[in-house]
Amino acid sequence: MFLTSHCREDYRSKMNHKTTIHLEWSGPLKLSEARSSDTDGDWGVYQIYGCHPVYGNDVLLYIGKAERQTFGKRLSAEKWWDYLPDPTNTSVYFGRLAGEMASSNDTWDKMIDRAERLLIFTHRPAWNAQMNLGTLDKELQDIHLFNWGAHRRLLPEVSGGRWTARLSTMEKYHVFKDDEPRQANCESC
Questions:
Q1: What residue segments make up the domains of the chain, in order of their start?
Q2: Tens of pLDDT along 104-123?
Q3: Which helix (H) or strand (E) holds 44?
């Protein structure tokens, strides 16, 4: 897992990313193959594509997480996708934490949880019931998530600053006009 601290002050914005999460995606796997994936320590976030009765074929159906259990065990515990309109045409992608140095299991769990919540909120998969950020809104505001590899239809980069309530309190937010005063040039910009 890769955690990077960015403390650069930006006086023109409230954006101040503090935690970067990298997910390296692999796939596609058939649902049966994904359920048999049982390598110790193989945890992360997963996404499932398939047929939806309203949205059509090959759509993002679900984003989930496997914490302290393998992808295979987590996927085997769920039975609802066996009742999809076309379960044989279902594909699964695994997102594993990546970066320069792995962290403790507790930190892994937090990063997996936050990545899953931010991805669900941002992409709104058809079968995810929990789409609001709830109590995690504040915890997700400083997350900057990069999706690498076979991330399929997920955005390659997702920011908690963009998708949470972080910027909704900008008191002086407005569209700039030509005739308004301007700040001096900023070296960090």
A1: 25-169
A2: 878 889 999 999 999 998 99
A3: strand 44-52
